[in-house]
Structure prediction request, 454 residues.
Amino acid sequence: MAASRDDFVIAIRSAFLKKDNQQRFSLIFLIIFSILLITLSRFNFAAVNYLKLSLNEVVYRASFIASLPEQQIQNSRIAIQEHFKLYRDYEATKKNLKELQSKEYNTKFIIEENKRLRTLIDEYIENSEELIGKVLLDKNSPFLKSIIINKGSKDDVEIGMAVLDKEYLVGKIVEVNYSTSRALLLSDLNSKIPVSIEPDNIQSILSGTGKNNGYLQYFKEGSTVNQDDVVYTSGSGGIFKSGIPIGKIKKLDKENYSIIFFSDLSQLNFVKLVSFSTKDN
Amino acid sequence: MAIQSKTSIFKKVLNFGPLILLYISVMNEFDFNYLNYKYFSFNFPFILIFYWSLKRAQSLSYGYIFIAGLFNDVVIGFPIGTSGLTYLLICGFAAYLRNITLRPNLINEWLFFLFTIMVVTALNYLMLISFFLIEVNYYEISANILFTFILYYFFSYIFETYKKLVFRGKADD
Prediction:
């Protein structure tokens, strides 16, 4: 027991008091020095504060340099994470693309089927060659909503041709001169277009209001239309082909609806003039 | 001749490897805290000092360890001298283990390391709480001790490999 205690004391003494080779200070000396420093810093001794300030100057600069590799690792880690995220996004996009491609095949099939069915019922499916016309004059008075286009009878413009802004119907030709023509816009009070409201296929007449919107006339009682339902031409009357998008429903209250046109009729610069005819079999 | 000179410089740098690593770790808080794992932190200087004091004390001089402690105090904002005292106590424990060990065994060293870091961390925070009225999070300290203890095992293998490669043929003491 006594021998064991002696061994313990010898080991401790050797560890703390003995100065090893290549060691300038013994451990106990440095421990005492540390305790002294802690005590002095506890009482805010001026010399210790100066020492701390000097150390701050050196260490903060050195610490910045020493932290560069870690910062580099951190930046690399972020870059790798970004790459993995990019790869995940790419995989998701690829999957979405495949889905869209399969839907596109489906859509192509439906379009072809639709064409065949329309041929069977003598529907207007053939467009004349599109004419692009520049809007020369925009008669934007409260009583007349029409535009003057720089295409006339010399360009084979005819009364009744549809006027499109991109793919949206904006009006029809009502007057043809040699080199110009006038189109009555959908927003004009006198404009009456047979329309179909999807998805419920409700038939109605779209009339202009004299402002930049339209309203539904001769609306069948009991039919309900909803906010954001889309209004297309119905093709009734044989002027336009069916399915040209016009605008969407904005519900004002329970019984009143307004049609917001897809095109801004006050900002037309170039328009397309198109006529429709039955396909000769 | 030039190649021989470059090799000699490289060897010298490798000889100072543990010391360089100690200074980098104290100035950089080398603890992977940027991983943002809750409670994950470890005290790399504890592992480094204990291992090298135990296995090859001349690689880390006590004076340099003390200065590294002062640097660490400045970086983490502790009262000056506290880390130095902690590091020196670890050196003392390691020297004691070296003196009583005849046949080194990693498991014994590992368990003794746990005892060492528990004692020195307790002393360190007792001092900070009592004298300097610093508030500490005991869960974080406990997690720090636990991870430091666990990681000692892995780092000891790395350091052992380094020691064999760099200090091969040189006396340990």
